[in-house]
Amino acid sequence: GAVVSQHPSRVICKSGTSVKIECRSLDFQATTMFWYRQFPKQSLMLMATSNEGSKATYEQGVEKDKFLINHASLTLSTLTVTSAHPEDSSFYICSAPTLAYNEQFFGPGTRLTVL
Amino acid sequence: GQNIDQPTEMTATEGAIVQINCTYQTSGFNGLFWYQQHAGEAPTFLSYNVLDGLEEKGRFSSFLSRSKGYSYLLLKELQMKDSASYLCAVREGGATNKLIFGTGTLLAVQP
Fold first, then answer.
1. pLDDT tens digits for A46-61?
2. Minimal Cα–Cα distance from B48 to chain A, Å?
3. Does B98 contact A46 at a Cβ distance shorter than 8 Å?
4. Is B92 exposed, middle or buried (0-12, 13-18, 19+ CB in 10 A)?
5. Distance from CA of A10 to the nearest CA of B (A)
6. What is the tens place of the pLDDT at every residue in B23-79?
7. Closest chain B CA to residue A98
8. What are phi and psi for residue A88, nearest 5 degrees?
9. How many CB pairs below 8 A link A and B?
């Protein structure tokens, strides 16, 4: 089946620094990718929709200047958490749908810890 | 607004059957997904329903009633490894096709 990878799987950073998370579709092209955030014991919250070749669409309440999304190619989307703070510590997961959108493949997730 | 509800927690016995319900009220509907998620891992796809009725896949079955805004996931012959969170998600359709996730149900399978 289709595979989506994320890098890094785990990152610890100091408050105020920026962290970049990559999401790659390994064996299929994804014009759209989704970024989610998940706090402990909670469900996935959609942050934004990443669109290849155009601006990302952010969900209500998500700061676009803080969570920069770039979808530079049909297989790569990046999420940059700028000026990270401890409250940004979370599990970040990306997903990519198939062309028919009848299935979405999730990356393994990135555990971000901001000290 | 968007509202997808599931029970928070459930407990069941190994070898038994458990049904996890999901009710939804969303601005659009173009399919409902069930995912399994173990702690610290990404969700894995279980099932997809877009038409009313029952979809069976091995030990797992999923049912959808669009008129009632209701779905359930049925797990048979429960195994200890089935202890996980089960997430119901609705695909909005239209231009976005984004998935909106429910609150998730933490299932504990006991011996």
1. 999 998 888 999 999 9
2. 7
3. yes
4. middle
5. 11
6. 999 888 989 999 999 988 889 989 999 999 999 989 999 999 999 999 999 999 999
7. B97
8. -85, -10
9. 53
